[in-house]
From TrEMBL:
<protein>
    <recommendedName>
        <fullName>Bowman-Birk serine protease inhibitors family domain-containing protein</fullName>
    </recommendedName>
</protein>
<keyword id="KW-1015">Disulfide bond</keyword>
<dbReference type="GO" id="GO:0005576">
    <property type="term" value="C:extracellular region"/>
</dbReference>
<dbReference type="GO" id="GO:0004867">
    <property type="term" value="F:serine-type endopeptidase inhibitor activity"/>
</dbReference>
<keyword id="KW-0646">Protease inhibitor</keyword>
<dbReference type="InterPro" id="IPR035995">
    <property type="entry name" value="Bowman-Birk_prot_inh"/>
</dbReference>
<dbReference type="InterPro" id="IPR000877">
    <property type="entry name" value="Prot_inh_BBI"/>
</dbReference>
<feature type="domain" description="Bowman-Birk serine protease inhibitors family">
    <location>
        <begin position="49"/>
        <end position="107"/>
    </location>
</feature>
<keyword id="KW-0732">Signal</keyword>
<feature type="signal peptide">
    <location>
        <begin position="1"/>
        <end position="18"/>
    </location>
</feature>
């Protein structure tokens, strides 16, 4: 009788373990995809100008991002690949690219 109870307990634990492992893994025949935070791909160019060029990470990795918010023509006419609407002012845009070394020269006061 004791042997049957032990066998049932082992069988139940095996079924529970199998169900949990199937739930936490990829389905049969599928590759499990692990996503690691990708290092941003630097834009090889430079913006026409940028006043707020800040390091992307701390300690600095040599990658910079321009925090300027300007009219759309500034973003469109520059080398920026990812112009996005700015969050603070209407009808202003920011460049969401990451640059290697520096963003570009400082903007003139005009």
């Amino acid at each position: 009788m004791a042997i049957i109870l032990v066998a049932q307990a082992v069988l139940i634990m095996g079924v529970v373990f199998a169900a949990v492992s199937i739930e936490n893994s990829a389905a049969l025949g599928e590759k499990e995809i692990t996503r690691e935070p990708a290092e941003p791909e630097p834009n090889p160019g430079q913006l026409t100008c940028c006043n707020k060029c800040t390091p992307v990470s701390s300690p600095p990795s040599g990658l910079f991002k321009c925090q300027d918010e300007r009219e759309f023509s500034w973003c469109k006419n520059s080398v920026c690949k990812a112009c996005q609407p700015a969050k603070t002012y209407r009808n202003t845009f920011s460049c969401n690219d990451v640059f290697n070394g520096t963003c570009g020269p400082r903007c003139s006061k005009n």
